[in-house]
Amino acid sequence: MRARRLIAAASVAALGVLSLAACGKAAPDVAAYVGDAKYSVDRVDGIYDEAQAKYADAIRAQAGQGGATPSPEQLRSTVTRQDVLNLLVSIELGKRVVAEQGVTVADEVKPEQLEQQLQMPASTEYVRLWGEWVDISGALGAKLPTAEVSDEAVMAVYHAIAKTGAIQPGLTVAQVRQAFGESGGPGSQGGFVRAATALSNALQQEAEKAGASINPRFRPVGVPSVVSTGQSLVFYSLPYVDENGPVTDISTPQAPAAEPSGPAAPGA
User: Mind spelling out the 3-state secondary structure of the chain?
Assistant: First the structure.
């Protein structure tokens, strides 16, 4: 409950996607460069492999209590290598924006608070990274100025959330704006999409300044997104959104290798 309140208060929501071209840096064993920071493919693989292994252990333990034997598919989490790199790049860009803006980031969200909602053991680095990202993005969301966004931008957020099943499909633009608190202009309550757009724009600008370069295997890089429904947290990815609306498709492409998912979840 505390994590849900913190996230809702910070208006952490749809944060966009970074489609970054190579900027003079290229190495097959490097997943991404952000300024002088470098993230190797091995690091991405290590975080991913740990997440999958600990998820499988949790599922086996949970199933064993009832005398069941989970299938190989049930032992695989929905987490992908792309999800891992999305977090690494977004955290690095977010830290740079935080430093430039003089923003204080409080260590509020702990891995244990996200374990059940992320369907992943809190002991994994993947969940720890999510906690760090929620703190950073929440602090920036409270600092950055917001602006009005187009109907296309609002609907891009809506369709991304609808894909998770967390909101009713088939709503009109007016219904979506009302649901998101975006129907009353700049002074309206909510401002969910406007705050998200401001954050995604800040990250995009920082990526350009830092000369970020992404291995083609991991393009485009999606910025992790989470929103509270009031009952649970919804984790999803969104197309990049600016004042002219979305410019690409859903931001979590398939990972380079097949990564089947499992429906079960520790603590779910």
Answer: CHHHHHHHHHCCCCCCEECCCCCCCCCCCEEEEECCEEEEHHHHHHHHHHHHHHHHHHHHHHHHCCCCCCCCCCCCCCCCHHHHHHHHHHHHHHHHHHHHHCCCCCCCCCHHHHHHHHCCCCCCHHHHHHHHHHHHHHHHHHHCCCCCCCHHHHHHHHHHHHCCCCCCCCCCHHHHHHHHCCCCCCCCCCCHHHHHHHHHHHHHHHHHHHCCEECHHHCCEECCEEEECCCCEEEECCCCEECCEECCCCCCCCCCCCCCCCCCCCCC
Say how far apart CA 40 and CA 38 lie, in whole Å: 6
pLDDT in tens, 95-140: 999 999 999 999 999 999 999 989 999 999 999 999 999 999 999 9
pTM greater than 0.90 (yes/no)? no
